[in-house]
Write a structure and sequence with these properties.
- By secondary structure, the protein is an alpha/beta fold.
- It has one domain (40-255): Alpha/Beta hydrolase fold, catalytic domain (Rossmann fold).
- The chain is 32% helix and 17% strand.
- Strands 1-2-4-3-5-6-7-8 form an eight-stranded mixed sheet, sandwiched between helices.
- The N and C termini lie close together (5 Å).
- Mean pLDDT is 93; it is low at 3-12.
- GO terms for molecular function: hydrolase activity.
- It comes from Neolentinus lepideus HHB14362 ss-1.
- Residues 37-255 form the Dienelactone hydrolase domain.
- This is Dienelactone hydrolase domain-containing protein.
Length: 256
């Protein structure tokens, strides 16, 4: 995606300090079959990104990361409401404490749930196709938690319109998902994801023809959710790694 990135000075190569009390700068409007999509960055650009939020839906922390990437990459960035017409998972119910809550979370991820990954893959692909129809020459996608799974599956779909995908503290990590991956992958798990699956995935994608464009970093000092809705930007270490993650995503999309 690097040929579409404006790289005028060093400032475009790093994310400025993040804010704990952040007010998102984008707008919401319908797009590509969704009633609610968060738009940030230029209205039209040769490069576009799709953000797939985590199970908590739209949150200022996730939107701040999107705003930063859109500005630094000079990219049109969209974050669709993948759970519509359903609702995100309640923030105060994670992690689930009771057997009933655990069962409900499994249902949320299951075939009839709002966060069933395969259901969102086609919708993500449709958004990427629409962005290209609207003039984007390159379209990347990044996602958190279940959204990381969605991105990997979308990058592995036949004739995917995506040019690069990234998964941040991804849920349901599986090496089998990357067997048919046909675009570069940025993979950024936390300490709470399976190190075994992470290493298996790295082995598979290292043999791909686009291996030089892949990227990975294991945030072993961070928890699942540190870069999205559960980020505590008043906590110094979390803030530092949040900034590092978005700088890493920035550099990944610049080269991929």
């Amino acid at each position: 995606m690097s040929t579409q990135i404006h790289n005028d000075n060093a400032a475009c190569c790093s994310i400025p300090p993040v804010q704990s009390n952040y007010q998102p700068v984008g707008i919401f409007k319908p797009y590509a079959g969704f009633q609610k999509v968060y738009f940030t960055g230029p209205e039209k650009s040769e490069i576009a990104l799709v953000a797939v939020y985590d199970i908590f839906g739209f949150f200022p922390q996730t939107q701040q990361g999107a705003d930063l990437l859109a500005k630094q990459l000079k990219a049109t960035l969209v974050m669709p409401d993948f759970f519509e017409p359903g609702e995100p998972w309640p923030n105060d119910k994670f992690p689930p404490q009771t057997d009933e809550e655990k069962a409900k979370l499994q249902e949320f991820f299951g075939p009839g749930g709002s966060a069933y990954p395969p259901k969102s893959v086609d919708r993500l692909i449709d958004v990427a196709k629409q962005l290209k129809a609207d003039g984007a020459k390159k379209v990347g996608a990044f996602g958190f938690c279940w959204g990381g799974k969605v991105n990997i599956l979308a990058g592995s779909a036949p004739n995917t319109p995506l040019d690069a995908v990234a998964a941040v503290h991804p849920a349901m990590l599986s090496a089998g998902d990357v067997e048919t991956l046909s675009v570069p992958l940025g993979l950024y798990p936390s300490k709470d994801e399976s190190t075994e699956e992470y290493n298996k995935i790295l082995e598979v994608i290292a043999k791909k023809p686009f291996a030089a464009k892949n990227d990975h970093k294991h945030y072993t000092n961070m928890f699942h959710g540190f870069a999205a809705a559960r980020a505590d930007l008043n906590h110094a270490e979390n803030k530092k790694e949040f900034e590092d993650l978005y700088n890493t995503l920035l550099k990944y999309f610049q080269k991929s």
